[in-house]
Design goal:
The chain has 15 helices and 9 strands. It is an alpha/beta fold. The protein has 3 domains: 48 residues, no CATH class; 175 residues, Orthogonal Bundle (Arc Repressor Mutant, subunit A), CATH 1.10.10; 121 residues, Trna Endonuclease, Chain: A, domain 1 (3-Layer(aba) Sandwich). Strands 5-6-7-8-9 form a 5-stranded mixed sheet. α15 links the parallel β8 and β9. α5 crosses α12, α5 crosses α13 and α7 crosses α13. The relative contact order is 0.08. The model has no long low-confidence stretch (mean pLDDT 93).
Length: 374
């Protein structure tokens, strides 16, 4: 086996390397007992210059594999001795890229790692967001403005176009969002029960990578405070740590729960759900906007499980059961009653424990269990 790793750098030094490999493979390589692997970390380059129809190497590959980011439970491989709640918070901050997780020092606290790796100006990940975009995208500043708009809450195409003022308006922004989706930096979210999400009017965009979400929330808007070590320390204690639980809660903790639920019930897909439900309020039937943190759908599109995820300092309240049961009935009015899953950082109401013992449809899941693969 011959592996040419970080092939994009070789190509930058030798522009005709693709043609050279193509000719060599056609004339000699394909008849030799050799397995040639071209690999690298610059996704955009491989899309354009290696596997694209116009690439000189097109049609020569025996296969291709695009490595996906790690799942949340893989954080445990890097931080095996950390409490489960800290592993989840580490996922929310450092994300799912092995390179980022490998920088976390297990003997330091989460707060110390945030300070040393991200907040201080010489931290290894302090400018990683800019470097990532510069590496992957030809017009990085424009894409940067799109991500900044999404981080600021402008999550629909028209809103992003208006916020950024990018020439070409919504049409150009849609193209850029497709590129960012292809790089797994953003995704398009629709209620998981929607049969055709690409055409759903309920869709919105969000930043996929947890590290980028943290960077755009706590680093980019605070460049002035982070100009020196003292300012970074004040920022950590005055803003980051007080807001960290809220940041971890959604969407990171919900993502961790969704990933676990997909394995637990062998679902075709798991995601968020939101919509309008008819409920009786003050003796009147009203339309109420509701949402669910985790909904599992089977291969036939039926809802098989619903979940509530609470990253709070207190126990998950019993009222969540009433809400989950009502929405489960709404989502599966004629089929089998979905399983009910409750995920909580700090335990559950005693009545929920009692009900779970009496009803095998109710499941209570702790942070520790989220790192036990079902």
């Amino acid at each position: 086996m011959l592996v040419l790793d970080e092939f994009q750098f070789i190509a930058k030094e030798s522009n005709d390397i693709g043609s050279v490999i193509n000719v060599w493979w056609r004339e000699r390589g394909q008849d030799l007992p050799i397995f040639l692997v071209l690999s690298g970390s610059e996704v955009g380059f491989f899309e354009r210059e290696v596997v694209n129809y116009s690439a000189t190497t097109y049609g020569r590959r025996a296969g291709q594999l695009r490595l996906r980011p790690f799942k949340a439970h893989d954080v445990g491989l890097f931080l095996p001795d950390w409490p489960a709640s800290d592993k989840i918070a580490a996922y929310a901050v450092f994300g799912h890229m092995p390179y980022y997780l490998a920088q976390v020092r297990p003997r330091e606290s989460l707060a110390e790692n945030i300070f040393n790796l991200i907040l201080v100006r010489d931290g290894l990940l302090h400018e990683e967001a800019r470097l990532l975009l510069d590496q992957e995208l030809p017009d990085a500043s424009a894409y940067f403005s799109v991500l900044r708009a999404i981080a600021a809450g402008q999550t629909r195409v028209s809103q992003i176009a208006q916020r950024t003022g990018i020439p070409g308006g919504s049409s150009r922004v849609s193209q850029m969002l497709d590129t960012l989706r292809n790089l797994w930096l953003v995704d398009k979210q629709s209620p998981v029960t929607v049969s055709n999400p690409e055409r759903s009017k309920q869709s919105f965009y969000r930043i996929t990578d947890p590290y980028l979400r943290f960077w755009f929330r706590f680093v980019l808007p605070s460049q002035g405070r982070l100009a020196d070590v003292d300012g970074a320390d004040r920022h950590l204690r005055g803003r980051v740590l007080p807001q960290l639980d809220d940041f971890v809660s959604a969407p990171a903790f919900e993502e961790v729960c969704q990933q676990w639920l997909r394995r637990a019930v062998d679902a075709a897909s798991v995601g968020w759900w939101w919509g309008t439900v008819r409920e009786t309020r003050a003796a009147r039937l009203r339309s109420i906007d509701r949402e669910l943190d985790a909904v599992a759908v089977d291969d036939d599109g039926r809802v098989s499980a619903v979940g509530s995820c609470k990253w709070t300092t207190g126990v998950l309240p019993y009222s969540e059961k009433t809400k989950l049961e009502a929405l489960a009935k709404h989502l599966a009015p004629d089929g089998d009653a979905p399983q009910l899953y409750f995920f909580a950082r700090n335990g559950f109401d005693k009545r929920l424990h009692r009900d779970a013992q009496a009803d095998d449809r109710i499941h209570l899941v702790s942070p520790e269990e989220l790192f036990d693969i079902p």
